[in-house]
Amino acid sequence: MAQSIRETERKYEAPAADDTSWLPDLTDVDGIASVVDRGTDDLDAVYYDTVDLRLADTSATLRRRTGGSDAGWHLKLPLPGDSREELRAPLSDTVPGDLRDLAVSRTRGAELRPVVRLRTERHRREFADAEGTVLGELSIDAVEAESLLAGETRASWTELEVELGEDADPELLGAVDKVLREAGVERLPGPSKLARALEETKVGTPRLPDARAEDVVADSAGELVLGYVEKQVRALVELDPAVRRNLPDSVHRMRVACRRLRSVLRSYRSVLDRAATDPVRDELQWLAGELGAERDHEVLQERLDAGVGALPRELVLGPVTARLQAWHVTKSSEARSRTQDALASPRYLALLDSLAGLVTRPPLRRKAAWKPKGVMAEAVLKEYDRLAGRVEVALETPPGADRDAALHQGRKAAKKARYATEPARASLGKPAKRLGKRVKGVQKVLGDHQDSVVARTELRRMAVAAETSGEASFTWGLLYGREQAAAGERQRELPHVWARASKPALRKALGH
Asked: Which residues contact 490 (CB under 8 A, 6 or more apart)?
């Protein structure tokens, strides 16, 4: 598996590499006691991308670099702020398979080929605190760029790069930035050397994501809905490498992105043509289902472990912990394989292509051009009415399996209603935000109830397995009873939570 490094850096315009009289003294920055010259490195990097620059368009880079202390293959993925994650693999003649896989949500399986070559003469200085601990590095880079796609086009420039050490205080970067700016050193607008090289050698200009604020003032319903769709597609793409590496909470977050996309594509059919979006929704449902096996197991495991952990020791009879552990190992392995198989499938690549097409060639309907408030309010209230109907059915259904099923349908409707409010907040303001919050409360109660239903099913299976093996089943029955009591409590809680979400003033607040 590739080695992961987090880098936090900023880049600046440098007047020259050989004359550094313009460079301020960094020991003027609080916390920096010394700056040590570490000499010069000659770096040679070939950057790989698809012909249409799919990596660069998502602020990612893949390079093969020789020279310096970290020669090898480097895949850089964006993180919030000034940080990026760098995934490293040893030098080889071809793109390492693990890095290719980690980039596939961006490349969508298209061929990776050399696009530009950068030769850099790097003059390095390390800055340290009073104890000699290295806090970061300042590099002055004289860069020569050569196109590998557009003939013999070349470009050259000099830039300054300030990179913090992994354990350094992030606020130090701001303090260094202030000293540099006061000395007249200007921050570079581009995200990377590659982006500048691609543009100046005429290979192409990356179409970087539009960082839309949630409270953006939109002129049309289409703009609001598409902004939300783009955000969720970007989340799905960016979470793919984390899911492949099994990082904490990544499967859950990717599944939520799938569900948000499915919901908004359904809720706003008046904006986006369902003839184009319904097939995408079907494939998102498939992917969420494949991811769900792993996520649902995570939730169930935490619930069962917590249940056993809360029992007094004298009530835990038989090899309860051992049976839980064996169950976890088996189920988690099966679920993990299901996730990996899904991400390695042609079906997944086809979905990624469909999502990219949805963003770049949106199937807009007539209402997409309308002012957003009326269109968004209509969609939100439609989902709310559907939720109200589901909740009323559940509350009128006698306790038992049928009510459990009805409550589960209510939970799914609550999620859809909540997600419908999210792209609407910019036009509907506080009423949409308030409704989303109240519906989330309903969803939470119904979600905990459903988790209890699933837990009871598994606990009964374990009790039967324990009995068959000659083990005591008392503890499994006790846990089952506690889950049944918890489900009853959620059912009694629901009418009160629902009352807060079903205020008569809702329609008036939303203008209907």
From this structure: 445, 446, 448, 449, 452
